[in-house]
Model the fold of this input.
Amino acid sequence: MVVVAGLSGESYDVDNEPFYTAGSRSLQYLCRDPRGQQRLYKLYRTPVTGPDAIESARQAMLFGRQTVLAAEAAGGSTGDAAEAVNWPIDLVLHEGMLAGTVLPLIPMDFLQPDGRPRTLDQLWAAPGQVASYFRAGLAIRLSDIARVLEERQFAHGDLSAKNVLWQPAAPLAYVIDTAGPATPDAAHDRFKDRYDLAVLVYRTLLPDAGAGAPGASWQPSGVPADLDPRVRALFDRAFGNGGFGPDARPSATEWSDTLRAVYLTPDGANYVPEALAVLDRHAGQPASAPAVPTVTFGSPTTPSDWSMPQQPVAYSTAPQSSSANTALKVILGVLLVVLVIAIAVGAVVLTGKDSNKNSAAGTSTTTTVTTTAPPTSTTAGFDKNTLNKQSTDKTPFTADALLPQSFTDSKGVVFTRRSFGPKDCVSSNMSQNVKTALQNNKCQQMMTGVYLDASEKILTSIEVFAFPSNTEAETLYNGLKGQDQIWDVWCPTQGVGSSVCQANTDTLFKATYSSWGSQEYRYLYESYSLYINLTVDASLEPNLEASARTILNLVGPDNYWKDR
Done:
């Protein structure tokens, strides 16, 4: 038994003998994490030395840990598309080089009886034996998974049939070979993924026996004339028909939205018979349009770079969810999956160094106060000046890096993060002066988070904005002082707290709230707290102010560096 230490701080007991040796890029070993959970350790034959490649792998690992481990802690998958990607969950570094990657195992639902992965080319080999509704649902699911990668700005690089698994019980897919998704700095990476996605969708929807194996030079034998024109238009752009270039290839979001509009009823409860009939005709099947079937899903796990090795079925499977989910939830669920933040109406917030603006009636008041500085418990010797410029700031722009999992406000109330997600800096609900300030000062990214107290009565929304340097952040911050502004309130897309963002504007702005803003390093923070039931009671303002002010001192790069 060999023990290796991961970048996360966890250690893994690795088997002495490799589980799979035929991979050209790695040796693969079974291992166990400190909790006894089985994992796969992929030891690279040639260590990765490029700083950019290592950083990309680290970003993927951070998101992988928060996605996979959260699902496992909850006892099973929610069916979200982010959980259907084989994210690395830890990295092993040696002398500054990336020596290996720790991955979860493939869930049993995506394996054949002999333990080998059930790859998508097996479905393509017998399209007439797979119902058209199943193929349409699977194409939607593939688009959702690709959308997760695209929204996270990761390029897979090889979205081919051998790297996409499926299960026969429901139209679900699982993408493997993602141990180190690269950041798509070059347009080629992004457009290649878009081409590969179009190939996956085409060959899943339509039998195309004479087209040969998919690849960089693969072209469809033809797009049926009776296919819905919206889908045909995407295929034309993807495959260059009509003179379209690579930059015209549809995004994963376009595929996801279009396939839903074509093959599902507006309420998402059923498939559209007329659209399925076209697929039936081209697969030699009788027309059918069943309601979306009900299945139970397990939590996601998968090793990458498999090249079809057999997985030992004697090992325990991933934990199963105790509740039954429907394929409708999987196919029509929140597209950004764990990034479950829904935009609502704007919130009146006055930016300024911890400047508060709250009232029961929602009218503007301005109070300038002095607060304590953000936490400074970072590793000795760490130069905080590096956080003032993007070129030197090594803080990952992820929820786990910038937002605490939970916090306790000044009144002793514990809040837990319920949803989060990256967004564009400017949103439609913001007031024009805010939009202009963000644009003029080159705002780069916004991370949003939503926290609920233990009693699920108070919602606290936080926005973290990143700029090229502290110069732009300070310019925006000082320039907006004394002005009325509208920023956004964020809520979970479903469940407790979602009702806040579903309320009409008048009701929301009449509710008692507390909102605060601050700036440090190259970051700007805006918080907003209110009661979920939209209580109107000025005497409760101190309860809201406690969380709205406390969160400002806990978010940002200090959250990431304090334990390092």
Q: What stands out?
A: Residues 179-188, 209-217, 285-380 have pLDDT under 50 and may be disordered. DSSP finds 15 helices and 18 strands in the chain. The first strand starts at residue 2 and ends at 5. Residues 422 and 447 are 4 Å apart (CA to CA).
